[in-house]
Write a structure and sequence with these properties.
This is Iron-sulfur cluster carrier protein. By secondary structure, the chain is an alpha/beta fold. It is 35% helix and 20% strand. Bound molecules: adenosine-5'-triphosphate (ATP).
C-alpha cells in the first residue's frame, strides 16, 4: 500500500507527549517526515533533555503507526535540543549559557542548595550540559556537596576563570575563592559586585542550563541579582510551615516585580517517614506549598521528604541523584527537573518553531 502524508500526520497528532500533555505535531517536534511507499521515517526533536524517555517515546509513536493497516518499516530518530529562551527585558544573555535557572528561597535553611545541586544533576543525567553557580555568599555549600571543597578554579589569562568539574557539572562557587572558615561580612553592593563578577568572569562552556543557587532571602542583594542576571525562570524552594511559606511568597513577588517568570515551587522536608516503623508525619505542616501554588496560579513542581539519606549523601559530597540514581528520591528530583525543563521549553514556542516538513517520495 501507499501511504499519504495526511494519514501519517493524523496518526502522529493523536499521540500525546506524557511530559507536556500536548501532541507531538502541534508541539512542532516532528521533523523531516519521509514517506516512501508503505515506509515512514522521521525525526522527533524534543525541546527538553529526556535521555531516559527517548526510547519509550519512540515506542509510543511506533506503536501508533503500527496500527495503520499495511504500514511498512517505521524509522524514528528521537533527540533533544535545548535552545536559549527569553530573559528579562533589556538584559543580555551570558556567553556560553543558553538558560539560567535561579533557585531561591524566602528564608535560609529550607534546602535550597540541596535542591539546586540535585536539580542540576538530574538535568545532566537526562543528557543536558549543566553548570551550577553557588551564589550563596552567606554559606557556600556547593563545593562540599560536590566533593570538590578546597580546590581552586584555574585561570589561563589572569582575568577569567575556568569552572571546576564534578559529576559532569561545571561548577563555580564563592567558596572556591575565599578561605574556608573565614567568615565573610558582605555589604550589599560588595556582594552584588562579587557575584556579578563571578558570573561574568567564569568561562562557561556551552551550557544548556546554568543553575544559580541564590543567597537566601529577598533583600537588596537578591533583588539586584534578579534584575541584572539574565534569568530564564526561577524555582522557589520552601518547607511547608507557615513562616517559610510567608517568606516564599515574598520571593515570588520579588521575581514578579523584575519580570522573571516563576517556573514553580518545590516543597522540601514535606513529610517524614520513620526509618524504623514507617510511620508518616508532617513535621512542618501539610499542603502549604500546593496551596501557595493554587493561590498564585503557578505550578507545584513536587515534594521531597525529610529524609536522612538526602542530608547524609549531600554532606558526603555525592548528592542523592548521583549516589542512588535509580532510587525513590532521585526519581522525585528527576521528575521535578523534567517539569522545569518542559516549562522552559514551552516558553519559546512562539519564537522558534517551523512546521514539520513532509516529503513524499514515490517508491
Ligand atoms: N529533604 C531533606 N531531608 C533531610 N535533610 C535535608 C533535606 N533537604 C536539605 N536537608 C539538609 O538540611 C540542611 C540545610 O540544607 P541546605 O543547605 O540545602 O539549605 P539552604 O536553604 O541552602 O540553606 P542556606 O540558605 O543556609 O544556605 C543541610 O544539612 C541539608 O543536607
Amino acid at each position: 500500500m501507499s501511504l499519504d502524508q495526511q494519514t501519517v500526520t493524523d496518526v502522529l497528532k493523536q499521540v500525546i507527549d506524557p511530559n507536556t500533555g500536548k501532541d507531538f505535531v502541534s508541539a512542532r517536534s516532528v521533523r523531516n517526515v519521509v514517506v516512501k511507499g508503505a515506509d515512514v521515517a522521521f525525526e522527533l526533536e524534543l525541546g527538553y533533555p529526556a535521555k531516559s524517555q527517548h526510547e519509550p517515546i519512540r515506542a509510543l509513536l511506533a506503536d501508533a503507526l503500527a496500527a495503520v493497516p499495511g504500514i511498512g518499516r517505521v524509522d524514528i530518530k528521537v533527540s533533544s535540543k535545548v535552545v536559549a529562551h527569553s530573559v528579562q527585558h533589556g538584559v543580555k544573555l551570558l556567553p556560553g549559557v543558553r538558560n539560567i535557572i535561579a533557585v531561591a528561597s524566602g528564608k535560609g535553611g529550607v534546602g535550597k542548595s540541596t535542591t539546586s545541586v540535585n536539580l542540576a544533576l538530574a538535568l545532566s543525567a537526562e543528557g543536558a550540559r549543566v553548570g551550577i553557580l553557588d551564589a550563596d555568599i552567606y554559606g557556600p555549600s556547593q563545593p562540599q556537596m560536590l566533593g570538590i571543597g578546597g580546590q581552586r578554579p584555574k585561570s589561563e589569562d589572569g582575568k577569567t576563570m575556568i569552572p571546576l568539574e564534578a559529576y559532569g557539572l561545571q561548577a563555580m562557587s564563592i567558596g572556591f575563592l575565599i578561605e574556608q572558615d573565614t567568615p565573610m561580612v558582605w555589604r550589599g553592593p560588595m556582594a552584588t559586585q562579587a557575584l556579578n563578577q563571578m558570573l561574568k568572569d567564569t568561562v562557561w562552556d556551552d551550557l544548556d542550563y546554568l543553575i544559580i543557587d541564590m543567597p537566601p532571602g529577598t533583600g537588596d542583594i537578591q533583588l539586584t541579582l534578579s534584575q541584572s542576571v539574565p534569568v530564564t525562570g526561577a524555582v522557589i524552594v520552601t518547607t511547608p510551615q507557615d513562616i517559610a511559606l510567608l517568606d516564599a511568597r515574598k520571593g515570588l513577588k520579588m521575581f514578579e516585580k523584575v519580570g522573571v517568570p516563576i517556573l514553580g515551587v518545590v516543597e522540601n522536608m514535606s513529610i517524614h517517614i520513620c526509618s524504623k516503623c514507617g510511620h508518616e508525619e508532617h513535621i512542618f505542616g501539610q499542603g502549604g506549598g500546593e496551596k501557595m501554588c493554587t493561590d498564585f496560579n503557578i505550578p507545584f513542581l513536587g515534594a521531597l521528604p525529610l529524609d536522612i539519606q538526602i542530608r547524609s549523601e549531600a554532606d558526603s559530597g555525592a548528592p542523592t541523584v548521583v549516589s542512588d540514581p535509580d532510587g525513590r528520591i532521585a526519581a522525585i528530583y528527576k521528575q521535578i527537573a523534567r517539569k522545569v525543563a518542559v516549562r522552559i521549553a514551552e516558553k519559546s514556542k512562539d519564537m522558534t518553531h517551523k512546521f514539520p516538513s513532509i516529503v513524499i517520495k514515490s517508491s
